[in-house]
Amino acid sequence: MLLKTWFSLVSVILVSTLAVLLYNFNFTLLYWISLLVLIIAISMQFIIYLEKTNNKNHDMQKTYSDFLKRKDRQIEELQLKNNLMFKTAMKKSQADIELAELKRKWEEKMKEDTV
Fold it and tell me: How do the domains of the chain map onto residue ranges?
């Protein structure tokens, strides 16, 4: 925010100085040098502003890329947890089935022993 305000302030000062210079322009060497210096300053300020904006866009792209990588990693972790939970539930259900069969066999054996 401060950088944006700074560039706006410098831009207004440079453009207003250029307008005043062109309004009172005399064809002397000092005026030509002043005009050249102001044009170079405005150009450099514009180039720096564009470079800052480009860097900001690059940083945003990098941040978005990092976000996508983190999201993919989280999705993979969730899939691994889901697979682990599914396998655990499957083993538990198989163990429950085996336990039910053993209990049924034990009850049948107990009935045979009592008869």
Answer: 2-114
